[in-house]
């Protein structure tokens, strides 16, 4: 779905009264009469055009249909107020024609601007169409929620589990940055995207890096945030390239603009199982329990021999003949033991298993 279709557009200038901004969202990407053409680049004056999506919207792809007058240097910027802009993409090698720009992370913004710094040999720049998409498709299930998590807690209240409890009203406090947490997904997954929500107060931003590993030893950086975008309840979403697989995910908080603290309110992960056995399992040769020696039932004789061993170690071997042990099942399925006088002056102890005896 083209999120820009029929949305309002605003430009820095128009070459004529009929090559106007609104034509870049009319759905016509090839007609010579349906395009925006800017005013001239004079005295290093830059030209731009932005689209108002109408509300804050998530997207990760921008598609530009250039007329012959294309920009060779331009950037994609986003904003929520059409005043303060953040650059999310820049190129110095604009080729013209149809350019599909896949952003490094999912953006959440209302306004999207193409800011042209340099034109080609033509005096202006011109676009047939601007299309905006959210191309990410994930499994919809947060595979990190409730999994095992490790790291440092600054205090008991704001503990690690808060980062994967599904509640944006709680958060993990990792103390002074740099500080990290790590999640064990328990299986190897082909990762589609990750979403990180830091502590939100409207005045702070964070820098951090995300690393992935199959074996908990060798890690690769798979995502990074190093811009000054404020922390929001939507968080930062990173679409991962095909082929990123991991069992262990580590987030390293490197900076907080408000103070020295490291915070994460929620760490969400999306992906699908690969069926691969984690390298850590291979390294230590983990077998199915049924295939091990421990799966064989312990016999009554083995149990009684262990009990005699305990008597020998705790009381002395001379006391072995003082006792008479027997194992009998209990009909109500409860553990029990019973002590009574046995034959030949021995102490008789009966129970349903070795632990009871």
The CATH superfamily label of the largest domain reads Galactose-binding domain-like
Task: Report the major sheet.
Answer: 7 strands, antiparallel
Poorly predicted regions are none
Question: Oligomerization state of this entry?
Answer: single chain
Number of domains: 3
Number of strands: 19
Query: Kindly, what is the distance between the CA atoms of the first and last residues, rounded to a whole number of angstroms?
Result: 70 Å
Offer a few descriptive terms.
seven-stranded antiparallel sheet, Jelly Rolls, mainly beta, 357 residues, Chitobiase, domain 2
Describe this structure in words.
- It is built from two helices and 19 strands.
- The chain is elongated.
- The protein has three domains: 8-133, Galactose-binding domain-like (Jelly Rolls); 148-275, Galactose-binding domain-like (Jelly Rolls), CATH 2.60.120; 289-352, Chitobiase/beta-hexosaminidase domain 2-like (Chitobiase, domain 2, 2-Layer Sandwich), CATH 3.30.379.
- Strand 18 and strand 19 (347-351) form a beta hairpin.
- It has helices at 279-283, 300-314; strands spanning 8-11, 36-37, 47-66, 71-79, 86-91, 98-119, 126-133, 148-151, 172-176, 179-197, 206-213, 220-225, 236-239, 245-256, 261-264, 266-273, 323-327, 337-341, 347-351.
- Keywords: Glycosidase, Hydrolase.
- GO terms for molecular function: hydrolase activity, acting on glycosyl bonds.
